[in-house]
Design brief:
Bound molecules: zinc ion
Helix content: 25-40%
Shape: globular
Distance between the termini: 54 Å
Radius of gyration: 21 Å
């Protein structure tokens, strides 16, 4: 029978599926947006990708992607990402957020209801970027204001926001009371709280900040996901990993993530930046890659409060321990604007594959794929049923697939050139459409779909 049975066939690739443990040379047949068949060989397709010598894996799912626009989607796609979700910062107007991106994205996208943007609105903060610089950072909310905050977040959840996002470090005046109230509403909608914990990580206060949200999770029943553990914990991160592991062992639904870099990045005007001074010379102004001193730091903080600074602050052994841990998902925390920013946007996933899996050998390839695809899908799937069809290579799942050469794959982005694309990511398929073809991005296709939770009208 000489017939092209499938729209697209991926031939002779090493198919790896972290859910089943499948690791075998197979053909995959795709019809429309869906994986239709996985078998040993001989599939015929209208289009064929020869994946000989390549790994065929579920597309990477980034739970922490701040750059939610064409520029960032394209950069991340070249790193193997097929779904980019903004779950820490989140949004206030969920309907508008999704509408702005429909039919215009190379990869799948989604957002949480964000405590920060909602607090900025309710407290009338003059923020110019995404982080507060006035009352939303510095003033505790009245009872009425707390109920407005809770109502807006509830409204976002009714509209299908994926989770509830928090950056308590950036809203230090938010009381435990307020945080508890927002966890309560998250619990009512089965939404996970994605939290950048409060305060100064290096001290005992950092541990207390972690305990604050574990307590809120325990009391309210809301699931908790602690974002970028390595930068939130720094030298305390290993202790925090143990605390989260213990919490899991005692039955709490608590998870975490990290990125494979030693530097963080944030807006220079953010409330939390004050905690790190006076190590001015550690800071890099992202726009020009210049090293700051006190004078330049104060100038930019005064005149460009929403400009980005990069802060090398995470000890190398902490980065290693976090990336290699069995309980961390990989998430980029990326954000690029006009080609400037942190190299993690373009390089997070290939850096894990090239540096940690191949060069250091501290992480198995299957374990790395699990941390980059299946774990994020599983974290969200209770509230977001469509995630059950992502993060897996299996019949009936969405054809979100990355095909890479495991002997070559590596990151190439640097602080000087943060958008230099990864090497060895040869094909990326999003909902059955080839977006990266033989290493080249097709900018004319927009197969990315909105990822939304259950919408409720009550
Ligand atoms: Zn953060």
């Amino acid at each position: 029978m000489k017939k092209n049975n499938y729209d697209l066939v991926i031939k002779n690739g090493r198919v790896m599926n972290p859910e089943s443990g499948l690791d075998s040379v197979m053909d995959i047949g795709i019809n429309g947006r869906t994986i239709s068949i996985i078998q040993n060989n001989n599939l015929l397709g209208h289009k064929v990708i020869n994946a000989n010598g390549n790994v065929v894996a579920p597309g990477f799912i980034d739970m922490h992607a701040h750059g939610q626009d064409t520029e960032n989607y394209n950069i991340q796609c070249l790193d193997g990402v097929t779904t980019a979700l903004e779950l820490e910062g989140g949004a206030s107007d969920i309907e508008k957020w999704y509408k702005d991106r429909e039919n215009n994205a190379s990869i799948n996208f989604g957002v949480s209801a964000g405590h920060i943007p909602v607090r900025i609105e309710v407290m009338n903060d003059p923020s110019l970027g995404v982080l507060p610089i006035g009352d939303a950072a510095n003033k505790s909310a009245s009872e009425d204001e707390i109920s407005s905050i809770v109502n807006k977040i509830e409204n976002g959840l009714k509209l299908g926001a994926l989770a509830v996002g928090f950056g308590i470090a950036y809203t230090p005046a938010a009381t435990r009371d307020e945080i508890h109230a927002v966890f309560e509403v998250a619990a009512a909608y089965n939404a996970t709280c994605h939290v950048h914990i409060r305060g100064e990580a290096q001290t005992e206060v950092g541990i207390e900040a972690l305990e604050e949200v574990i307590t809120a999770s325990l009391i309210t029943g809301a699931s908790l996901h602690v974002v970028h553990l390595s930068s939130s914990g720094r030298k305390n991160a290993p202790v925090m990993l143990r605390i989260i592991e213990d919490a899991q062992l005692s039955g709490l639904d608590i998870t975490t993530e990290c990125y494979p870099y030693n530097a963080g990045m944030t807006e220079i005007g953010a409330a939390t930046v004050g905690n790190w001074r006076p190590e001015y010379s550690d800071f890099i102004w992202a726009d020009t890659v210049e090293q700051l001193n006190q004078e330049k730091f104060e100038y930019y903080q005064e005149n460009e409060p929403s400009g980005m600074i990069i802060m090398p602050m995470i000890p190398a052994d902490v980065v290693d321990e976090c990336v290699n841990s069995n309980i961390t998902a990989i998430a980029s925390d990326g954000y690029i604007k006009n080609g400037k920013g942190h190299p993690r946007t373009a390089g997070t996933y290939s850096k894990v594959l090239g540096h940690f899996v191949r060069e250091k050998g501290t992480l198995s390839l299957m374990n790395a794929l699990n941390k980059m695809s299946l774990m994020p899908a599983q974290r969200l799937e209770d509230r977001v049923p469509i995630m059950r069809n992502k993060g897996r290579i299996s019949v009936g799942c969405d054809a979100d697939i990355v095909i890479f050469d495991p002997n070559i794959v590596t990151d190439q982005s640097t602080y000087e050139n943060p958008i230099s694309p990864s090497k060895g990511i040869n094909y990326v398929i999003v909902n059955g459409t080839i977006v990266v073809n033989a290493g080249k991005l097709n900018t004319q296709v927009f197969p990315g779909s909105s990822i939304r939770g259950i919408i409720s009208n009550t």
